Amino acid sequence: MSSRFVRVVLLPAGVFQSVIFGGAYGTGREIAQFISSRGPVGGLLAVAVAALGFAVVMALSFELARLTRNYDYRGFLKTLVGPGWIAFEILFLLSLLIVLAVNGSAAASVLNDQFGIPSLVGVGLLFAAVVALNYFGRTLLQESMSICMIALTIVLTIFCAMTFIDDHESIRRAFRDAPTTGNWFASGGQWMLYSAAVIPVLLYSARDLRTRGECFASAFASGIAGAFPALVFHLTFMAAYPESLQQTLPTYWMIGELQHPWLMVLYIIVLFAMIIQTCAGLLQGVNERLDAWLLERRGRKCDPRTHAIVGGATLAISMILASFGIAALVAKGYGNMAWGYLVIYMIPLLTIGVFKIWRKTGQA
Length: 364
Fold this sequence. Notes:
The structure is a single chain. It contains 15 helices and no strands. It has 364 residues and is mainly alpha-helical.
């Protein structure tokens, strides 16, 4: 495997999938709500909409970042919306605290429910892993995300294959008889918007992209990587449709129905690793922003120790807020934050961003 393939395709795709997969996506709850609720065929179309949306948004973001050499979200958004970057940062910081709190709680619950590990120990393991990844920096983090992406792909492929072997007739019946419900295009687009809002924070994964072709190839691979778990979950949910959608944790329930405990153990291990990657990947975006600001003001970046402290402190604050119920209160408005990202990031990217890319191309 060539180093360019790894840097252009594997690393950005691994970063994107790892960051969006932790939490509600990994349990299947998001997929049941936004994808599979539209019916067997409608769900497939919704996944296709999301994958295409991911690819387009990432292609434009990667290319604009490459042309302007802005790989932290502050510099990128200043280029895109000027002073409006402050609104993005406010939304992102609120979202970050919620996501870290939710993932921290999920990590503790997963280890406690499946292996009997005390919640405090689970949080401690998450904390230690996140701090270590932020200390050692971008290169190790990206490589670990790529490894986790490969491991997740293997586990999901096994899960999908075993479900089809055991319940292919039920899946075929669902696709034959169950109707499409609701607006699959809007539902897939809403989920895409909800998930793609983190892309400006992940632009550090595009630093090695040299050409427009590499940006587009990387974005295409990332779109597929981001949507692949959704496709697997949707297809497997059809084996027990619509009962599977009524479960609090649909993926756990479906794996449990297969009655292969070893598969559940594998999935929990990979999910815990992905939760770690979600937290560390988002906090790496914060560290990239701090590095760019310090470089601009003082001519130097943060040292690894500061990166680790920033990551650990932010994670600790989010867990404290979660214990007081503040994160849950703010989370009630999280859906509205997605509309904020639409106004501050998506619409400017598809208008101002496209114009800037076209103008810079013409000047080349």
